[in-house]
Amino acid sequence: MSPSPERRRELLGIAADVFAEQGYDATTVRKIADAAGMLAGSLYYHFDSKESMLEEILRTFLTELWDGYDSVLRAQLDPRATLEALVTESFREIDRHRAAVAIYQKESRHLVAQQRFQYLAESQQRFEKTWLTTLERGVAEGVFRDDLDVRLAYRFVRDTVWVAASWYRPGGGHSPEEIARQYLSMVLDGISVRT
């Protein structure tokens, strides 16, 4: 009898929390099993290695992220609405996959050296292109300032949004949509009183 999908998801959630908290290299199968309240050998009934667990955690996060981003892009919104929708979708993913986002941020640089994790570099290139294209289109269409350094703006927005995974906790005082709205207000309209 194979393990239930619910149990598998539960174990991946526990593994993601341990990886995010302790780092990939410092995390052992035993530490994940201890956090799950099971013997390390029992974890191998569900997964063949910690690498497999990490790969599934990151692939699940990125698949859902790209499903959301692709829906935004298919909608063919104007550049500002596209940017707003991408930011909102990003916060939804942080809400759904906070630990995976933290792992991605901490570990992806050295993971991409492994053949198994090459898809991380491909996703990063696609991510950058998506955001830069949106910003460039906004400048070209007169929606964003023409003196905007789009690469710098991209880095600022990217880092401002994704660093939220370090403090955001699902079920907190603000929904992902409310946090996105506040962030977008600051990014697009500034923090000065409007005159």
Automatic annotation (TrEMBL):
Record-linked Pfam families: TetR_C_24 (PF17932), TetR_N (PF00440)
Domain of life (superkingdom): Bacteria
HTH tetR-type domain residues: 5-65
Protein known as: TetR/AcrR family transcriptional regulator
InterPro entries cross-referenced by the UniProt entry: Homeodomain-like_sf, HTH-type_TetR-like_transc_reg, HTH_TetR, KstR2_TetR_C, Tet_transcr_reg_TetR-rel_C_sf
Keyword Magnesium: no
DNA-binding interval(s): 28-47
Keywords from the UniProt entry: DNA-binding, Repressor, Transcription, Transcription regulation
